[in-house]
Write a structure and sequence with these properties.
0% of the residues lie in helices and 50% in strands. It is mainly β and 126 residues long. The mean pLDDT is 97.
Length: 126
């Protein structure tokens, strides 16, 4: 089964940018539906972005649309989340996730995903 490891989190000022990476092993990410989620203390895990299996279509939460871009690089078996124009409310632990999928659909529910990384902290200061 696929294993996922996130990296790239850190502390950034409002208006700045970060790029998160999600490196996969024991599985090819283009064969999975992939997702990015985030979570703050006391709240449920929140959908951020998803990339479909196969053709790699993307879909975003309204709160990040136009600022965040999800992509994947097959040669490195890695998914990315480019985050621009960051806001303090983007502060959270960010997780990548994978779902075995045959349909090429978008998945925005955390419960849809079976495989998760350990998370990486993103902190945006005002």
């Amino acid at each position: 089964q696929v294993q996922l490891v996130e990296s790239g989190g850190g502390l950034v000022q409002a208006g700045g940018s970060l790029r998160l990476s999600c490196a996969a092993s024991r599985g090819t990410i283009s064969n999975y539906a992939m997702g990015w989620f985030r979570q703050t203390p006391g709240k449920e895990r929140e959908f951020v972005a998803t990339i479909t299996r196969g053709r790699g279509g993307t879909y975003y939460a309204d709160s990040v649309k136009g600022r965040f871009t999800a992509s994947r690089e097959s040669a490195k078996n890695t998914m990315y989340l480019q985050m621009n124009s960051l806001k303090p409310e983007d502060t959270a632990v960010y997780y990548c996730a994978a779902k075995i999928d045959a349909s090429g659909s978008y998945y925005i529910g955390a419960r849809d995903y079976a495989y998760w990384g350990q998370g990486t902290q993103v902190t945006v200061s005002s």
